[in-house]
Write a structure and sequence with these properties.
By secondary structure, the chain is an alpha+beta fold. It has 8 helices and 9 strands. It starts with a strand and ends with a helix.
C-alpha cells in the first residue's frame, strides 16, 4: 500500500509504502521490501525515484500508465521520456541493478516534466558492477545477500506479464538486456497506444512474447518516423544477443532521432 504524505521537516511531498497486514510478518516479504530499499538507495540519479528511508520516496505527478490512458503522446514527449528512462536504466545497470519490472505503472512523471523509475521491489543486486559500455552477461548479474536465493524460486518468472522479456517468461537468469526488452514494450505502448503482445490470457501473451514478432508501431500511428520503428523493434528482439546490449546504446539512438527531428522541425 502506498500513501501520499507530507514531510513536515523538509516541506516536500513523499509517498509512504507499507506491507499489507496479512504479510507484514512474513520474513520473505519483509526481506523483499528491504531489498527494494537497498537496490534503490544505492542509486542516485535524477530519473530514479529517491529513497529517503525504507518505503519512503518522492512522489508527485502521475504514472506513465495514466498518461498513456489520458491522451496520445506526441513524438517529442515520447522521445524525452524515453531518453530519461534509458538514462535511469543506464545508471542502475552500471551499478549492477536489474529492475525486472519495467512498465508504465513503474514510471512516474513529476510536475516538472521529469520521468522517474519507481518500485525496485523485484530488483536484483549484482555481485559485480558493470563498466560503462560493457556488454552485460549473466555471470555479471549474480544475486547476492543472505537468503537471497530463497526470494525467487529457480525457474519462476517475476514481473508483469505484458512487459516480460522472453527469458523472463521462461524463468531464466536475467541480465540488464531483459530490462531493455521491457522498456521496448513501454516505448511501443507510448508510440502505438497498445502493448506489443496483446492477449486475453497469460498463455496468449506469453505465446506472443516468445513466438510472435510485433507489428511496427507506425502501423497503428502513421505519424511515427521509420527510425523509431527500428529502435523499438530492436529493443524487442527475442534473442537478447540481437537486442540493444546496453541502455547507453538505446539512449544514444533516441537522442540521435530527437536531434534529427528537431533539425527538420518535426519534433
Amino acid at each position: 500500500m502506498v500513501y501520499k504524505a507530507k514531510d513536515t521537516r523538509l516541506g516536500r511531498n513523499v509517498a509512504l509504502k507499507f506491507l499489507p497486514d496479512d504479510i507484514s510478518q512474513d520474513p520473505q516479504a519483509i526481506e523483499r521490501f528491504r531489498r527494494e530499499a537497498r537496490a534503490a538507495s544505492s542509486l542516485n540519479h535524477p530519473n530514479i525515484c529517491t529513497i529517503h528511508d525504507i518505503g519512503e520516496f518522492e512522489r508527485e505527478g502521475e504514472t506513465l500508465k495514466h498518461r498513456i490512458a489520458r491522451k496520445p503522446i506526441d513524438i517529442s514527449e515520447l522521445l524525452e521520456i524515453g531518453i530519461q528512462i534509458a538514462s535511469g536504466l543506464d545508471d542502475a545497470h552500471s551499478k549492477g541493478v536489474v529492475h525486472r519490472d519495467v512498465k508504465p505503472a513503474n514510471i512516474f512523471l513529476v510536475e516538472r516534466g521529469q520521468a522517474k523509475m519507481l518500485d525496485f521491489g523485484l530488483a536484483k543486486l549484482a555481485q559485480k558492477k558493470l563498466r560503462v559500455g560493457e556488454t552485460v552477461g549473466v555471470s555479471a548479474m549474480e544475486t547476492v545477500g543472505p537468503g537471497e536465493e530463497n526470494l525467487t524460486s529457480p525457474g519462476s518468472s517475476m514481473g508483469t506479464v505484458a512487459y516480460m522479456s522472453p527469458e523472463q517468461a521462461l524463468g531464466r537468469e536475467l541480465d540488464a538486456r531483459s530490462d531493455l526488452f521491457s522498456f521496448g514494450a513501454v516505448l511501443y505502448e507510448m508510440a502505438a497506444g497498445a502493448t506489443p503482445f496483446p492477449g486475453t490470457t497469460t498463455a496468449a501473451i506469453f505465446d506472443g512474447i516468445l513466438h510472435i514478432s510485433p507489428e511496427s508501431p507506425s502501423k497503428s500511428n502513421s505519424r511515427l518516423p521509420a527510425q523509431l520503428d527500428l529502435i523499438i523493434l530492436k529493443a524487442l528482439e527475442k534473442d537478447s544477443d540481437f537486442r540493444y546490449q546496453t541502455a547507453t546504446e538505446l539512449k544514444t539512438d533516441l537522442r540521435r532521432l530527437k536531434r534529427s527531428l528537431e533539425s527538420t522541425g518535426r519534433a
